[in-house]
Fold this protein.
Amino acid sequence: MRGWLITFAALAALIAVSLLLGAASLEGDGWLLLVSRIPRTMAALLAGAGLALAGVVVQQVVQNRLVEPSLTGAPEASMLGLLAVTLIAPGMAVAGKMLIAAACALVGMIGFLALAKRLPRDDAMLLPIVGIVYGGILGAIGIWFAWAEDLVQYLGAWRLGEFSGVMMGRYEWLWAIAALAGLLYLVADRITILGLGETQARSLGLNYRQTRALGLVVVSVITALVLVTVGAFPFVGLVAPNLVARWRGDNLRANLPMVAIGGGALLLGADVIGRAVRYPFEIPAATVIAVLGAGVFLWLLHAAPRARHG
Amino acid sequence: MAERRVLWLGLGLLLLAGAFLCWQIRAPYGFILELRAAKLGALVCVGAATGAATVLFQTVAGNRLLTPGLVGFDALFVLLQTLLVTALGGVGFAQIPSGLRFVMEVGAMGLGSVLLFGLLLRRDAKDITRMILTGIILGVLLRGASEMVQRLMDPSDFAVVQQAMFASFGAVDPGQLGVSAVVLLGALAVSLRLAPALDVCALGRGTARGLGLDHDRMVRIALLLMAAMVSVSTALVGPVTFLGLLTASLARHLTGTHRHAVLIPAAALLGALILVAGQFVFERLLGSASALAVIVEFFGGLAFLFLVLKRRPR
Amino acid sequence: MIDVQNLSYVVDGTEILHDVSTRLERGGITALIGPNGAGKSTLLHCISGLESPSCGSVRIDGLDPFTAPPRSRARAVALLQQSPALVSRLTVHELVSFGRWPHHQGRPTQADHDAVERALVAFALSDLADRSIATLSGGQRQRAFIAMTWAQETPWMLLDEPLNALDPRHARDLMARLHALSRDGARSIVIVLHDINAAAGWADHIVAMKDGRIVAQDASAALLTEDTLREVFDTPFELLEHRGRKVVVAR
């Protein structure tokens, strides 16, 4: 109970800072608040929550705590799809782009799972390494295409997520994450059982493949939503679930809300730091979260006393 | 046998260099030759430095999947350079002669890598994958940190850093190339002198110490040499993560030996060969020079996955 | 009764099970023994319905585990795989509670809570209930997983080498516990064992396998002869009697 109180107090404080922080004065009729500050704050919260939830799902599916969506090639595969759309049908509606981005993310993750299957289980740290390299290969294909077709700017915007362009009318797609979060909460038990591994999950009568497919589709859609609206952010899906699990254990039915709040707060915090450090200029939230997240990741790797042996 | 293959590699590089210099050359010969020679020099230096540094690193770390680039050596260099500009100011930084500046950077880099990676190698020597992952994430951290520092800089200082960091093969500073070549040759010569000791080092810390080698000291020396070579390559062209992996695995495969007296020159020659050949094909034959780095990353990444999957069948 | 008919299992051209037919009667402990690669684990997985055989059929008290809906199957038979992996930082109580999932699918009733408590008591885990699995010793963790399988309250419980990685004390303790729990006849336990003496000491029936076939099957006392063991393991054994129990020693 106290944990929740502290969490909500911290979140409220962050939101207040985010609403008040900016180059323009807030005096007047609140128009600025409505059109720019509130959307920006909400976008960071929703994107962070979505990435954190996606991280939990991926971790349960591959039974490895050190993996997250951006370490499975999903964002890079998504970018490839978006590049193709930009080339072939630049005028496509946003919904169409989202759909293609999500489908490509799904294909990318299926490729990753195929690789993961061939790796030994006993070495938990090998999987994230393979994920990083796999993402790098997909990324190299993307860069090559972008160069050849003069689309480097697009790629840059996707690769380095930030919230400075968020305004009313430009971020509303992210609200779909709230719906997906609700869906995940409904199947939280099933997602936890996924983490027991295929044999054990099936012995408990779970339709393993169907549940895994549902999880992966949700992860792909979240990846696409975040990528198309605000760009990619590393490590959110890794840091938030791990910190919550260390603190409160791993029963998802009880902890999914905390994971979502943690991810949202993390990304909003990164955005606030990026805005505050060199006020009135901004550092992209993705850069801030890369430094913060890498730091936490290193700590998890070393301070964690054999965390993977659950 | 293995030595003869190294000779063949050297011969191949010479031929390729000749072709690179003289392919479809037109007047004014002197000017074009000079341009191409500078570019060739940079390619050879970068390739050789990366190849040799990777072999050294793999020996010290006891793992054939590691490259200095993968664990963030180049990121460390970029961060140091950024910090140096921040400390001295853009103007102050630009006023230091390029030779002296480079020596300063290499010095800082050597110190930084011994501190950072010496610690890492010592702590994680038993858990190789954890070490690789730590290195990769450390690389992300260092890259992110230097990006942050750059964003915090004065815009004019930032321009200086950018210029210093993203010098491409096209625009090589002859002064810097000269210093780089000297540093690289020195580092290579020392590595070759230490080759027999490195052979013992590759047996692992316990065995090496049992055989009377001061393993820890050897690791520090190797890290220093490596720091110098990575500085050379990063200062000239910027980060190339997977080139080292490609060359080191090819060199081991081609020579079929564990002897560093052969491996190091073979890897150095192969690195140079791959870069010169790649640049030649892309620039002269396909007309798109910028793609080379990406292609190297692509195939290097594939090579990495191949090695990982092959190393441990199911 | 588990009725296995003409079961074959081929993977990559290698026949792991060769035309296996057998009947396992209800009650007590049935041990599957045999040398490495005899097909014990594969047979166990096929019986549980989690691995589909190349041909042949399985009936668990009349239920076909391959075509039955997962939920009914999971209320007829429970399998614990060999050294189950777990990334989750679940507590013992949470893990054992998941054994009830086939019964309530996310909405536990009082009966489910009671079953979890019974399983915790049966495997002496009550004091550890709120500990995280990650902090347990190997023996305690194995007990927690078996308690989860126990809480599933299926007539049939299949355990794949549960003694793996347990020291002799914990192995004995676990076998004694399973033996005691299976006396009332409500649960039938099929267990793959590596250690012949564990089978000799605690199993009511033994099924001996070799090269994908069943070579002998009988009540323990009748099956354990020097001739049968030599045939199964291709190595001579000596059968001793110690305080009324059979002890097998390799010669």
Q: What stands out?
A: Chain A touches chain C through 31 residues (CB under 8 Å). Chain A has one domain: 51-302.
